[in-house]
Amino acid sequence: MGALAQKVIGAGITGATAAGSAMATVQAPYDFQASTYPVINTNATITLPAILGKKWLVSMITGSLQAKAVTAGLSAMFVIDNGTIVFQVELGVPGVLGTTDRISLSGVAFISFAANTPMIIQVNAGGANIQSTANVGAYLI
Asked: Does one domain contain both 125 and 96?
């Protein structure tokens, strides 16, 4: 499925195009979807592999930090395209056990600069006793 693929919901009207007569259209499922919840003090990293003749369109990303002890942490979530940081947002947790900082972006369009290159979503652990997580949904175009 491509980045702009849609599914048609509804019977449609005779003589009209399916998309034009549908009750609704919805985005097709992602070509790539992954989550990571690594051990404490480890960066949460997801790599979208290089695919011959294709680019990635990252449409959804989330990241979080959680304090697993009374330790403050400051970190960031990155979208990296072929070694270049194309998006960065700061995350931080105070020195309070169980506190969490999250970011969730949907409907975004981070597109690979070129075909045949990997993209990486990474949330740095940010300090001792900090749990990081990352999630991504992407299409091939």
From this structure: yes
What CATH number corresponds to the domain at position 112? 2.60.120.1390
Tens digits of residue pLDDT in 19-70: 454 444 456 689 999 999 999 999 999 999 999 999 999 999 999 999 988 8
Cα 134–chain centre separation? 7
Same domain, 35 and 9: no
- DSSP H or E stretch at residue 118: none
How buried is 3 (Cβ within 10 angstroms: 0-12 exposed, 13-18 middle, 19+ buried)?
Answer: buried
**119-123, strands of its sheet edge to edge:** 44-48, 119-123, 73-81, 84-93
Same domain, yes or no: 11 and 36:
no
Residues contacting residue 20 through CB under 8 Å, at least 6 positions apart: none
Structure tokens at 86: 């194309």
Residues 54, 121 contacting (CB under 8 angstroms): no
Rg of the chain over CA atoms, in angstroms?
19
Predicted model pTM = 0.78
Could you tell me the residue range of the domain that residue 73 belongs to? 31-140
